[in-house]
Design brief:
The chain is an alpha+beta fold and 745 residues long. Among the domains are: 16-180, no CATH class; 255-321, ATP-grasp fold, A domain (Dna Ligase, domain 1), CATH 3.30.1490.20; 505-735, UDP-N-acetylmuramoyl-L-alanine:D-glutamate ligase, CATH 3.40.1190. It contains 25 helices and 30 strands. It has an eleven-stranded mixed sheet with strand order 23-22-21-24-20-25-26-27-28-29-30, with helices on both faces. The protein has a five-stranded antiparallel sheet with strand order 17-14-13-18-19. A four-stranded antiparallel sheet has the order 1-2-4-3, sandwiched between helices. The longest helix has 20 residues, at 141-160.
């Protein structure tokens, strides 16, 4: 695990991980990313849950805690209305009849992941005796590794009846998983994008994510998009400049001025009239703000607190009019105000016995309170701001307030209550105007008003802050009221209509003629005006620039192509060795050219090999696989994919090949049969012949032999052949925004 937390398990020969594979794309197991480990059971090779009732009883005793979802995960899930997918793998009851430690270890790992909010949709074990493999859906590499390590620790503790504090272990693991995963705001956006079929990829270990691919890609960083301007973000941090911009467009704001010294601050407060608010000039998200500053003595303290939150001490502070009312946060996305939440002061109520410090400690025992942004309520802190506020109430942390006295610890503390349905159109208009005046595409607008359901001018309501990169958890999972689809609103802003942000991918299995096939396909697409990027070997080739070396794996090159701002289609040659250790380099492909693309005419049919299974798992539901009719795995592939296969024949159709081709055509499948310089396209009983001139017109650089036949089949499967050529709608043509090869895209 990363960070300061350390995890230790018994250092012996039992349940040792011998090998680990991280499939970040479609793989031999599943279309989902998978974490696969090979485990040596050691002296537990003969252990079985059926013969160790005591160990299984201990695990059963932990079961309630193991299956308890952390509060913040449960709240988010309940608020979004998401029903967690059924956890894959064995149920606890099925373990009673299982053999070996593998199923128990798998159940523990999958359960721990689900507890952390990562419900695996794929979980399997294979093998037995001393060596076995576990394969579990991969969300985050470090979290998966930590879940497996803790699963091992718990299983060994159960077998040995060893000391283990399950509650503490679970809390530590859940905290680690929460830190490693995307935050709730980013998760909401990614979840909304995935629901629309938009590919999502976490670019780094922080919150930077890519949505979409190639020319259509967009990026987010929490609640900021790649359209959030640096100037706008800087303006939002400069509170004086923000106030001036809002004033210019008629948004009501508190009167105020900048003060660079305590003397200037006291003078400004006297001009405005106490009480006042003192805030950092370039702070953000409400940090360092003192409310209700009553006199010059209070000002000295408030000034130092605000200055301390500035990026530069010389920037000064803002002293402004104290706005009376309730704090409200409005979320603006584009030209819409999509959510609103009402705040509350952090308050403790005196009982005539306990000090304020004791009352705060008691309040912090509320399970809703915590230090993380995913907690519904924040921890009350008796920091300098709070002590100053207490002093203005003639109190201190050691004071014992009278029975029933409400003591404010923090003004405008937590945003707890959804009030989106109550927003007055005038308030929404001012919020959108404030965001536009600063230049933000997404903004959190803080305002103070008695009621959000009345125009601001009726109640002297004011906008007090405009925030870039606003937190959204208060809208995703409010303490009171219904959650709002804020992630969906941001995705709709970036991807209009039914746009899924994808570029079509043609994946070609590496082989003797794969380079020829890929080159012919790239040439065809480029001839139609499409910017088709191609990765073969260690090189990347994108029209408009010189081909360049890109060391690393096929996956690295695919990621580079799919992030290229000009690429409209991708042709990727994938090596079986890379696919075997990382999975396919792309999450999807519309056309898969399978290997081997040539084989002896009398090849016996065999099972689907792992590399081919990887391609098939990546194939889109409307995707098409290209396969040589003589391939030794042809019958197994046809049984798996059926009519979505285009069989390719170069030369005479005889023997077993003829029977295979005939059966495929009868079932409605497609066949490309090339003989010399001519080709025949077949669908069922229908046939269409292409002469040498026809082929030259369609694909000018069509290679000879099987390479050309495969390239022709791929173009046909993609739906890109011009004219009436027995063409059903193709998966590539459907995704391209441009005319290709003279046909309609």
């Amino acid at each position: 695990m990363a960070g300061s937390q350390e995890w230790h398990v018994a250092d012996d020969d039992r349940l040792i991980v011998q090998a680990k594979l991280l499939y970040r794309g479609p793989n031999r197991w599943s279309a989902l990313p998978v974490h696969e480990v090979e485990i040596d059971a050691g002296s537990l090779a003969e252990w079985s849950p059926r013969s160790d009732a005591a160990a299984m009883g201990r695990i059963g005793g932990w079961r309630e805690r193991l299956e308890t979802t952390p509060h913040e995960v449960a709240v988010e899930r309940a608020a979004t209305g998401d029903s967690p997918p059924r956890r894959a793998g064995p149920s606890f009851d099925e373990l009673a009849t299982a053999s070996g430690p593998g199923p128990v270890l798998l159940w523990l790992e999958a359960t721990l992941l689900a507890t952390a909010g990562i419900v695996p949709r794929f979980a399997r074990w294979v093998g037995g005796g001393r060596r076995f493999r576990l394969a579990v859906e991969l969300d985050d590499e470090e979290v998966s590794a930590a879940a497996l390590e803790l699963a091992r620790k718990l299983l060994l503790a159960a077998i040995d009846d060893g000391p283990v504090d399950v509650g503490e272990e679970l809390a530590t693991f859940a905290e680690f998983a929460d830190d490693a995963r995307l935050g709730p705001s980013t998760r909401a956006i990614v979840r909304a994008a995935q629901a629309r079929g938009i590919p999502c990829r976490r670019v780094t270990n922080n919150s930077l994510c890519q949505l979409g691919e190639g020319v259509w890609k967009r990026r987010i960083w929490t609640a900021e998009t790649d359209a959030t301007g640096a100037i706008a973000e800087a303006l939002a941090q400069d509170k004086q400049m923000t106030r001036m911009l809002l004033e210019q467009v008629g948004v009501p704001v508190p009167r105020g001025r900048v003060a660079t010294s305590i003397e200037e601050a006291c003078l400004a407060a006297a001009e405005l009239g106490f009480p006042v608010v003192v805030k950092p000039r370039d702070g953000n998200h409400g940090r360092g703000i003192s409310f209700g500053v009553r006199d010059n003595d209070d000002m000295h303290e408030a000034f130092e607190i605000a200055i301390g939150e500035n990026h530069r001490r010389s920037g000064g502070v803002i002293v402004e009019q104290f706005a009376h009312g309730v704090a409200h946060r409005l979320l603006v996305v584009g030209e819409r105000c999509v959510a609103a939440a009402r705040g509350q002061n952090d308050v403790v109520i005196g009982d005539g016995v306990r000090t304020i410090r004791a009352l705060v400690d008691d309040a912090n025992r509320d399970p809703l309170r915590g230090p993380n942004y995913t907690d519904i309520l924040s921890v009350m802190k008796l920091n300098d701001l709070a002590v100053g506020l207490l002093r203005r109430q003639s109190l201190e942390p050691g004071s014992i307030p009278a029975v029933g006295r409400r003591v404010t610890i923090k003004v405008n503390g937590d945003l707890t209550t959804d009030e989106t349905d109550e927003i007055h159109p005038d308030v929404a208009r001012h919020a959108v105007l404030a965001a536009r005046a600063v230049g933000l595409d997404i903004a959190g607008i803080d305002l103070v008003a008695e009621e959000i359901g009345r125009p601001l001018w009726e109640q002297r309501g004011m906008v007090i802050e405009v925030n870039a990169g606003p937190g959204m958890f208060m809208h995703i999972a409010p303490k009171q009221g219904k959650p709002r689809p804020v992630g969906e609103a941001i995705v709709d802003l970036m991807f209009k209509g039914d746009d899924d942000g994808r570029v079509p991918v043609i994946a070609v299995a590496h082989g003797p003629v794969s380079g020829e096939v890929a080159g012919a396909l790239a040439g065809f697409l480029r001839g139609g005006g499409i910017v088709a990027g191609m990765a073969t070997g260690t090189r990347i080739d994108v029209p408009g620039q010189a081909p360049y070396e890109f060391p690393g794996s096929d996956r690295d090159r695919a990621i580079a192509l799919l992030a290229h701002p000009h690429v409209e289609a991708v042709i990727l040659v994938s090596r079986p060795a890379d696919a075997a250790v990382e999975g396919l380099a792309t999450l999807h492909c519309e056309v898969a050219v399978l290997a081997p693309i040539a084989g002896p005419d009398d090849a016996a049919s065999g099972p689907i090999d792992p590399a081919t299974a990887t391609f098939l798992h990546a194939l889109e539901p409307d995707g098409v696989a290209i396969l040589a009719a003589a391939a030794p795995t042809a019958d197994a592939i046809l049984a798996s994919v059926g009519p979505r296969v285009v069989l390719v024949v170069d030369g005479p159709v005889v023997g077993a090949i003829a029977a295979r081709v005939g059966a495929h055509r009868i079932s409605g499948g497609r066949v490309v049969h090339r003989t010399g310089t001519v080709a025949r396209l077949c669908v069922g009983r229908a046939e269409h012949d292409l002469s040498a001139a026809d082929l030259a017109a369609v694909i000018p650089a069509l290679p000879a032999g099987i390479s050309g036949a495969v390239a022709l089949a791929a173009v046909w499967a993609a739906g890109l052949l011009p004219g009436d050529r027995l063409i059903p709608p193709g998966p590539v043509a459907a995704r391209l925004r441009f005319a290709a090869g003279g046909g309609d895209a």
